[in-house]
Amino acid sequence: MQVAALPKYSPAELLDKVREALGPALESAEIRLGDPVIHAPVERLYEAIEKLKSHPDLDFAMLTSVTAVHWPHDAKEYELVYHLRSLTHNLLLAVKSRVARDEPAPSLTPLYKAADWQEREVWDLMGVKFEGHPDLRRILMPEGYPWHPLRKEFPVGGPDFPIDAFQTDAHHQVREDEFWGEPG
Known about the structure:
Layout: H1 11-22, E1 28-32, E2 35-39, H2 45-54, E3 62-70, E4 78-86, E5 91-99, E6 105-106, H3 115-126, E7 130-131, H4 163-166
Parallel strand pairs: 2-5, 6-7
Antiparallel strand pairs: 1-2, 3-4, 4-5
């Protein structure tokens, strides 16, 4: 693979190529703070990203990050943000899609192995489910933890729960420390 030293397209030229490649799978496109950003409806998200990856003029073969933003007052309160990279053309692109609280997003794990843990992290911390994910389970919080700590309604001081519910070690034993005192 030949890595390009300079971007093949300007941000405006890139968005023109993306519009041409995606057609109806594209909701909107913009240049935000100098960076190209596109918006795809969640029901066409997989299709859009698959085209971005396979199109020879784009070749977005690398998924660098998956994250989400919580907008609790919107009907589709989660904004998924994917950052794609083309090494062959030296291009960067942000892809955004909105989902409602109980609406799943398609898993990109069949397209990018890097999506695996990143989607698990978004599920764990935000509560966005990824349909078709091979192993969607907690990655940072303990299994059975009922909350998603990066949601805006999550209490700053943490939820009120009994000490032994989630303050356990790998053997499910309550930890002794200065704050909690003796387990008991």
